[in-house]
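Quick one: examine this chain and its backbone structure tokens and tell me how the chain folds. Here goes:
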Amino acid sequence: KFITATRRCFDRCLRALPLTQHRLVWPLYVDFATNCGVPETGMRVMRRYLKIEPERREEYVEFLQRVGKHDEAAKVLADIVSDPDFVSVEGKSKYELWMRLLQ
């Protein structure tokens, strides 16, 4: 119940705040969702977050690998590698991302 109540609280915050202030809530929400112990919650919250911050896809891949969702991580990595406009926030080259995909 705590996880559901907290998730709903974050959702209410995002609905109530103007879009310009969402940047204050999202980092807290993502941190909560990815560390709450329920992988599905983390995945859903991260997918929503990526609609606003698509350059954070590498963080999503790391989360997916940490929770054992390797198929989904491989799909996201393949999308990253095939996106000519993607620039790694972590400074990784396309080659490094390819190598990570192949592991």
Summary: Residues 58 and 90 are 8 Å apart (CA to CA). Residues 2-16 form the longest helix (15 residues). The chain has a mean pLDDT of 90. The radius of gyration is 15 Å.
